[in-house]
What we know:
Two copies of one chain form a homodimer. The first copy, chain A, is mainly alpha-helical. Helices cover 71% and strands 1% of the residues of chain A.
Amino acid sequence: MNAPTTSVSLKDALARACSEIENTIENLLPMVPGDESILIEAMRYAALGGGKRLRGFLAVEVATLFGADRQAALRVAASVELLHAYSLVHDDLPSMDDDDLRRGQPSTHKQFDEAIAILAGDALQTRAFEILVEPETSPNATVRANLALALAQASGSAGMVGGQVIDIRGEGRALPLDQVRRLHALKTGALIRYAAESGAILADVDDARRAAIVAYGRDLGTAFQVADDVLDSTATAEELGKTAGKDEASGKSTYVSLLGIDGARAEARRLSDRAREALSSFGAQADALRALADYVVERRN
Amino acid sequence: MNAPTTSVSLKDALARACSEIENTIENLLPMVPGDESILIEAMRYAALGGGKRLRGFLAVEVATLFGADRQAALRVAASVELLHAYSLVHDDLPSMDDDDLRRGQPSTHKQFDEAIAILAGDALQTRAFEILVEPETSPNATVRANLALALAQASGSAGMVGGQVIDIRGEGRALPLDQVRRLHALKTGALIRYAAESGAILADVDDARRAAIVAYGRDLGTAFQVADDVLDSTATAEELGKTAGKDEASGKSTYVSLLGIDGARAEARRLSDRAREALSSFGAQADALRALADYVVERRN
């Protein structure tokens, strides 16, 4: 693999968005007194525990590209990050992936307990939808309703959760490439695509621009997952901040098991290039999104 | 306790709404091919397994009282029932209430497995929000966004899930009456109140009428819970379709442990009467809602 060529400007933009998204989540999950405070603690633990904020960054960058209000964009970014955090909390549970470690820290059910982790995930999902439909997100109610609708489509049974079920059912048996593609398009792709699309929905752009962003988000999401499979089979646990080589050990079909390391790397590059092409009608303001397409296939964690 | 005085017209209205809500849920959770079909099966198992449809009935009756479209009202009713179903699936999990039986049938994690039950609950929540913001629910986007916002407030960390956490944390220690009231206001009251309010939001009524319905829904919800505690300590498992006497066995403070059976019955009646009073500005079209206030404190299961 070539040395990462992540541009300085992408790094800066990522770092800035990361910090702004973190602050926004902080404000959107205020502590409360009473016995239920442990729930908010667990929600904050799960949602503020770092992470690349790739999804939130996508939402902010696309919204900014189209001139949406940055504070509103940060709310949408926070919403998609809370949705993502809920999915990780539930994925890590003993009856699911049974992962004790997340981003190098105890996963939520290890830090708290299983019941609190399930409920924190539940409440994070609720909060993600709540934020989108609150008037502060947009004065335009159609925009608010459409944001929530697109998030539901991306994360429910026909999206992320559906993909998770296919993943669980497929464990221990070899899936053909088209089924692995579909699994990931649902499990991780749909939410990444939504993250990009949400910026376009917030900015209320025309169908052509929204379609270009959806195409970009779709390819970026797949590229991300292919690169993830490559990382899982080549990086160390220390680099990843989570257990490495787990997919291989559990007998899951991955892009690497189906295409080989070199084939998977080439596939990730092809998808990343196609994602960039989807942005061809946009000017230099989309450069951070273009650089992001490189970053997702070149990252080391 | 007096013999139930549930009026024939309430029984008819309940039976009609029950069947319409069941059909609506059927249509809103269509089966799909592929490995994820088991997820939809589990969602349907959890959501179509009977139940009184009290929440859905409330939504439909209030919406009808205010002249909203019945098909739209049934969608809102289905949404609140899906949200309720998700909460039951997660509540029954081994790390939560660990209940093997629900409505006389194996609970979802017994019928399927724990992972599928968690994911089915997750997807039911998502679908509940999705239905509300779909254009079919209302041509008015503000109505759609407000329905979703009110559902999020009623079901998230400051509502149902917050109440569930207080419940879990309070197990095995005696809570004073005001904390038991708050627990139930959140855990079960908020969603019942929302169910009534959702009909008013859908019909886009003025603030005064919405406030009257909210007051009705709040007292009805508390009356329901007090009556539930009475039932839990007096009815048999066969009558309830679930394990009886569980709260007492787990050392939970209940209205019965705090007020005694007779005191709890009187409290339920007082709340039911107050719920009826909240409807005083409405005519005979609200009679089913009035009869419902009697029904919730006189029911045997």
